[in-house]
Each structure stands twice: as structure tokens, then as C-alpha cells.
Sequence to fold (359 residues):
Amino acid sequence: MTRPARVIIDLEALRHNLARARRCAPRSRVMAVVKADAYGHGLTRAAAALEDADGFGVACLEEARELRDAGATQKILLLEGPYCGAELADVRRLGLDIVIHHHAQLDLLDAAPAGAPINVWLKIDSGMHRLGFDPAETPAALARLERNGNAAAKVRLISHLANAGAPQDAMTRRQVDLFMETTEGRRAERSLANSAAMLAWPECCLDWVRPGLMLYGASPIPGAAAADFDLNPVMTLESALISVKRVRRGEPVGYGAGWRCPEDLPIGVVAAGYGDGYPRRAPPGTPVLVAGKPCALAGKPSMDMLTVDLRGCPGARVGAPVLLWGRGLPVEKIAECAATVPYELLCGVHKRLEVTERG
Ligand SMILES: *Cc1c(COP(=O)(O)O)cnc(C)c1O
Fold:
């Protein structure tokens, strides 16, 4: 047997979740966000399954090039825009849209040689204070774009929400109101909603929506389950037991010897660890499914292995399948145990893992 740790990508779930996103925003075009290797799911694999999307959002030129090389003809938006002037030649050659969020990027556009017009999405900082022009600067930035021969005449307006996963959040209310005020009467296409906003703030579904996490079947709303929104998990991380033994009460398990058996225990060793992308911070008690039965981590995750308290599945033998997250054990649950977000776990799965596609 080769090392049993592997990732399974359910392409049918990806298509289902895209259809679900469309139902959330029936009047919007959908820009599927596939940055960071499609949140760890494989960029070209995910994009092929998401071919019905109206566009793809990526973080950088390299990701956009990979999509075009794989034959993607949809709109592709560089969410952070160009990092240097030299990228603008590739932007034109590949037919990409760019975000412009800073005067330094307007300088790049001014300095670029004349050529085919580039589609620009002007980013407004509605309150997250990460990227974007201050609302008060927006008219001047738009005027600069109009004077610039390299930008297409049709400019789109975009902003990002800091806390859309919290329903009734006062800050989100202020961000939405500020974006609406700033963009009102401009007759430009607008985009505001990420996954959380699509589910919790339907009024944010403007001309374009930008779902990421929900497409991968995880809930972007803390405390809510993906199933509550009819989203199906796309990624499953699974492996198998490579050892089962009994460990006596009071004996330690794993590195640091900080965790001890509360009674005589069957301890299973799973061939998966933080070297595969499982979070090292996951504490003892974090759920694991062994042959479909709920068990719990015992001791700290190591690089290639996890130790599990098998009391929930006392009959388990070497070779028993182990599910670390996926269908039946939401990645959000593991993220919560490890004090992180599902985004980090999904995009942290390691390249060493074998990937199997389903659907
Ligand atoms: C990553 C990203 C998204 C997608 O966010 P999700 O929370 O995954 O839906 C949307 N817009 C921008 C600008 C992003 O960077």
C-alpha cells in the first residue's frame, strides 16, 4: 500500500455550489474567485468545473496565465491589479481585466505604451482599509482614468466587505451605504458581495458577485453550517490507520508528552499531519471520522501522522479509512477547533497529496 493520505475533489459539488450561488444572486453575473489554486482545489480543475461562471477572480498574472493556457475564455480579473508596469503588456496579450486600487497603479497606466484599451475595475475603500481609493478621492481617480488612453472607457466599480459574515453588523451597514452613495448615479457596473454577503446581505448582489468560499462548499458565516445554505463540501481530506495499539492509563501520546491517556485506550495512528496541511494547532478532542464513526485527536499532530483516541470505533484495524474533513465532517468545524478559518485549511493542503477527482 502506498501512503494513504489523499485529497478528493468532488466536481459535482462544485457545479452544485455554483448553481446555488446563481440562485442567491439571480440578477448578477458571477465572478468565481479561484485565487490561491482555487482555495487549494486545483486552479484549472476548478475552473473547468466552474465553466458556467461569467468570470474568474485571481490574485496575480501567473494564475491568470494558467487559466488562459488551459483555454479559459471567460473574463479574468486581477483582484489586486498590476504589481508593475511590465505586467500591462501581458494583461493586454491575455485579455485580462484589472483592479486599480492606488494612484501608483494609475501612474503605471499613464506610463504604459499606447495599445488596446484595458478593462479597469476601480476599487473603492468603503471601510475595510485594505485596498482602494478613499471615497472622497474617487471622482479624481475616475477623472484620471478617463484622461488615460490605456483604460477602456467603461470603468467598473468594486469594493470589499470586512465583516459580511456577521448578520446585522453595523460596520457592514456603513460600508454598504458608503459604497452605494459613492457610486450612485455613475451608470457603472458595480460589485460588492463576497460569499458571506451573498448569503447574509442580499442587497449587496449588484451587477457582479464574487463568491469564493461558498463555491467550495464551506460556510462563510461563523456558526452556520454549509448544509444550512444547501452547499456541498468539495474537498475531502482522508487517509487511513497505519497502527493501532493499546496505551495504558496515564501514559503520554505524541510529541511533548503533554497529553496522557485518561484510561487504557485504543490509540490509532493516521498517516496525515501538518506536512499535509492538517493544522498543528488542532487540540486533542478535535473530531476525526474513523470508518465513519466519530473519534477524537489524542496528543498533538505531527508532520506526517496524527494520533487518535479510537474509543468511538473500537473495532478499527490497520487500514481503516479516516476522514479528516469533507462530507460528514465540515472543514469549518476543524477550523473552529484549530482557532482558524476554513480558508486557511483549504488553501493549505500540501502539494504532496495525491488528488482524486469525482463527479
Ligand atoms: C477572495 C476575495 C473574494 C472571495 O471571498 P470569499 O469570502 O471567499 O467569498 C471576493 N472578492 C475579493 C476582492 C477577494 O479578494
Notes: The chain has a mean pLDDT of 97.
